[in-house]
Design goal:
The complex is a heterodimer of chains A (271) and B (247). Helices cover 41% and strands 23% of the residues of chain A. With 271 residues, chain A is of the alpha/beta class. In chain A, helix 6 packs parallel to helix 7. The longest helix of chain A is centred in the middle third of the chain and has 18 residues, at 170-187. Chain B is an all-alpha fold and 247 residues long. In chain B, helix 3 (75-115) packs across helix 6 (172-180) and helix 5 crosses helix 7. The longest helix of chain B has 41 residues, at 26-66. Chain B is elongated, with a radius of gyration of 21 Å. Chain B starts with a helix and ends with a helix. Classes of the chains: A alpha/beta (271), B mainly alpha (247). Chain B: One of its GO terms (cellular component) is ATP-binding cassette (ABC) transporter complex.
């Protein structure tokens, strides 16, 4: 479990995070959503320790991460897996070597056991056939999947994904979302996703934090989000004409059980 | 351009301090060190080979051109070539070229890793990135650049001998005789002292600029250029300082 208590962060005079508090539970997909510049990337960097906080606390299973020294932080970090927006794969290594890297650095066991674990993870993300390829030789979606395989290879307790769907086509996006959700439930991981992809919000958001101008504006689940009366959240979610119309045209119940997409498709096919 | 000497110097020292921590996995650090030795040593051998040969050849011809007095034996040309190459050309000229080749490679490699979040990915894994990425590069440069300088010295002198023979300025025997005249082993020590210093400057300064890149692809190019320029200036400055102190 990750708890954020009154997180504050400024760059010079500009206050980016104005006291954000929330709790992210294991086995749930926790989403941080918000418009560009709302502070969600800074918040994620503060949670994982890539940026220091000016105030507040980040607690990993009740351990205060913000007050730890580098040596103590290393212990927590070895329980963290992270998927970066650009995948951040090591260019000079093959897909297999990328996934193997954390195991070689921190893993125990024989080379054979490590290799078996790498194969298992690549199998999990359906990329075994690309094991010998270099990152430059694979597509964006495949890179993301390699990033996921590398993030989970050490069986992390916490998984962070920074805009996992950016630059991907809708089908690949859904595949990535599904994969992250399955892994979260399967291994009871505390997953935190930074996104502004509405599909992810509707499909995967067990717990959603909506950021607005450096503050937590709204908090809830994908079941509640379309019923929210929060105007700023509604402006964000239903920013496109298409979704606004869809919302107005249909009873909100359709959103509740996620059937709205199927219904829309049916109607469009019918036309 | 704002010149923030103390800001950069302070950050540079903090970067060096940050390299010293217990390696997470010694085997991986060793692998990284060996990879850097190959990249810096073997990767730069070609250019060092070419410039050394021509450097020696040109030095022989120019020295012969200037020593026109009939009372000076021709073997003196070889003596002058030997000392010029050992004292100055092999360590300094080679290091200036290596600042371009190795320095820009280190800066752009680290800059690219920074921009593409590869350094962040290593940090998240709990790896000391300064220790894992920068320390092996500095150690490899400090080990391999003196080796390249020594090779450059041998090749330079050999190039000088070949150029002297080919142009008919002096015979091979005269050249070999001149090489043995008043040889001071201290000069070799001086050249090695310079090359260790230059190796450290080239790798650490380039790593500093590459590691701290912010922005995009344009900034990687800028950092690479700055790294080469600053390395060259510091190499020349230290060349003068060491000459004043050690000779």
């Amino acid at each position: 479990m990750i708890e954020l208590k009154d997180i504050r962060k400024s760059f010079g005079d500009k206050e980016i995070l104005k006291g954000v508090s929330t709790t992210m539970e294991p086995g749930k997909v926790n989403l941080i959503i918000g418009a560009s510049g709302s502070g969600k990337t800074v918040l994620m960097k503060c949670i994982v320790g890539l940026m220091g906080v000016d105030g507040g606390k980040v607690l990993y299973d009740n351990q205060d991460f913000t007050s730890m020294d580098d040596k103590e932080k290393k212990g927590i970090r070895q329980e963290i897996g992270m998927l970066f927006q650009g995948s951040a794969l090591f260019d000079s290594m093959t897909v297999e070597q990328n996934v193997m890297f954390p195991l070689e650095m921190f893993g125990t066991g024989t080379h054979k056991e490590k290799k078996a674990r790498v194969d298992e993870c690549l199998e999990r993300v359906q990329l075994k056939e690309a094991a010998k390829k270099y990152p430059a030789e694979i597509s964006g979606g495949m890179k993301k999947r390699v990033g996921i395989a590398r993030a989970i290879v050490l069986n992390p307790k916490y998984l962070f994904c920074d805009e996992p769907n950016s630059g991907l086509d809708p089908q690949t996006s859904l595949l990535i979302d599904k994969l992250i959700t399955e892994l979260t439930k399967e291994y009871n991981i505390t997953t935190v996703i930074n996104t502004h992809d509405m599909n992810t919000v509707m499909e995967s958001g067990d717990h959603i934090v909506y950021m607005y101008q450096g503050q937590k504006q709204w908090e809830g689940s994908n079941k509640d989000i379309v019923f929210s009366k929060d105007q700023k959240l509604n402006d964000f979610i239903f920013a496109s004409e298409f979704l606004r119309e869809a919302k107005e045209m249909r009873q909100l119940e359709m959103f509740k059980d996620g059937k709205w997409r199927d219904q829309l498709k049916k109607e469009q096919d019918g036309k | 351009m704002e010149f923030k000497f103390f800001y950069h110097f302070g950050n540079f020292l903090l970067m060096l301090k940050g390299m010293f921590s217990r390696p997470e996995n010694m085997k991986m650090y060793w692998k990284q060190f060996m990879q850097q030795c190959v990249d810096i040593g073997v990767g730069s051998f070609g250019i060092v080979f070419i410039i050394s040969l021509f450097m020696g050849g040109v030095t022989t011809l120019q020295t012969a051109y200037q020593l026109v007095s009939p009372i000076i034996p021709k073997s003196t040309i070889a003596q002058v070539v030997r000392d010029t190459i050992i004292l100055e050309f092999a360590p300094t000229l080679t290091s200036i070229v290596l600042a371009g080749v190795v320095g820009s490679k280190i800066a752009s490699e680290l800059g690219n890793m920074r921009i593409s979040e590869q350094i962040d990915a290593l940090e998240i894994m709990g790896i000391n990135t300064k220790g894992y990425l920068i320390a092996p590069k500095i150690l490899a440069a400090v080990l391999m650049i003196p080796v390249l300088v020594a090779i450059a010295g041998f090749l330079g002198i050999w190039g000088g001998k070949e150029a002297g023979e080919l142009s008919g300025v002096l015979s091979g025997e005269e050249f070999m005789q001149g090489l043995r005249q008043e040889f001071k082993a201290y000069n070799v020590f001086f050249a090695m002292a310079k090359s260790y210093t230059f190796g450290f400057i080239i790798a650490s300064v380039s790593a500093y600029y590459g590691y701290n890149v912010t922005g995009g692809a344009l900034e990687i190019g800028k950092a690479s250029t700055t790294a080469v320029v600053v390395s060259c200036v510091l190499v020349l400055f230290m060349d003068y300082a060491l000459t004043a102190i050690l000779l």
